[in-house]
Amino acid sequence: MSHKTIMILLDGCCYDTATENLGYLEHLVSIGKGTKLRVLGELPSLSRPMYETLMTGLPVDEHGITNNHLIRCSNQISIFDLCKNYKMTTAASAYHWISELYVRAPFQPLMDRVQLKAVSKIQHGIYYFEDQYPDSHVYSDAEFLRQQFEPDFLLVHPMNIDDAGHKYGSTSSEYHQSVAIENILLSTVLPIWMNAGYQIMVTADHGMNEHHLHGGNSEQQRMVPLYLFSDKFVKGIHTDQCLSELFIAPLLCKMLKMEPAPGMRPLSQMEVQIIDV
Known about the structure:
Layout: E1 5-9, H1 15-21, H2 23-30, E2 35-40, H3 47-56, H4 60-63, H5 79-85, E3 90-95, H6 96-102, H7 109-112, E4 114-115, E5 124-128, H8 135-149, E6 153-156, H9 160-168, H10 173-195, E7 199-203, H11 219-222, E8 223-229, E9 236-244, H12 248-256
Parallel strand pairs: 1-6, 1-7, 2-9, 3-5, 3-6
Antiparallel strand pairs: 2-8, 4-5, 7-8
Helix pairs in contact: 9-10
């Protein structure tokens, strides 16, 4: 069973909008090739704090990345640190805040956009710094990294859903259209990556409300999807209960066959039992 894993982080994607528009992922789950869960995001439901929560398994009061304006590198044990300890290769096609958390800060666009063979937690990275950078390019960058370096863990982080949400709100046609476009992109790359032996995780950092905002404590802002395509999990729809976002990092450890960091929650405490033993 492969340990190689690709995590696709759909920035700003609400659970209900994903269910309505990500038809390819819903198809894979419906025919028994995937696992679907609802995830309740941590607070505050902001991007940079949630990136750190997703990568470390820690709540905001423990990891200290409290808002989007706090620019510094992570000082906690992340998935990237664990991979490095296990001599695994890491890569990221992602927004520049990921570079600031796990490579160096502050991000310098003229120097830091492409960082290959870096001596850092993320060894190979292509980072963008404009929210409207096309998601199609993010996946193209990711495929370049996959082909060139065959990473054990690859983070793919498109931003167009979040960008549409901030411009038009979560109930707008534009927001739904951005998720529908994501569905086409995912249906293009997932068969390639799965045929190459990769496990896939698709989730989001936070949602979006009708006021073009996120950061607070409402279902629209906190409820996000989680799709898993891996033989390590029981297939089917498991959405009767919500899974805490704090379990994403230990689930990644399970997929990558790594021991979780000491601060991560044991998977035995999950609200939904999906581990296929």
